[in-house]
Amino acid sequence: MVHLEHFSEHPLDYINEFHTTERVRIDSCPHCFTRRRLHLHGIYHRHVIWHEDVFSIPVQRHYCIHCGKTVSILPSFCHSGFQLALPFLLELLWAFFNMIPSPNTLAHQHRHFISRRFLLCMNRLIEYFRICEDPLIVFPDFWHEKAIKLLEMVYSVGKPHIFAKRYYDHFKKGFMAL
Ligand SMILES: [Zn+2]
Question: What is the pLDDT of residue 110?
């Protein structure tokens, strides 16, 4: 399981500050709900694609001695299960639905995959905005216009990671998770 936390907004700052920043602690297990602080349980690395750059970032893992499961603290510029950093991922979605040409083949491949995924996740996004912002919001019927309106609403929350963490804390899964 993943827990999102706000750190620096850029992977390079996150990497530089990782070893000097005080560790986030988890005081109750999200798996078994025991109220015993989870143990720090090593660090692993994951890739983050940030526009043209790829970073390998350290991720702190925590371990519950009660149920034996782990929780990882991901910086909120990441989306669990995706290597694309959040600002880049949203930029690709925006470009796809607004029919802005891809700068290169890799971006083209990424955005086809994530756009299909985004379409599958739209109903839960609508639910989120109806619960958290306005129960009477009306969305266009056509999927393409609906996707653009949802992306506009995501951007209107502020910086992408603010929205992503709020969504994650609400549904306990990322806005692009199935
Ligand atoms: Zn547990």
Answer: 85
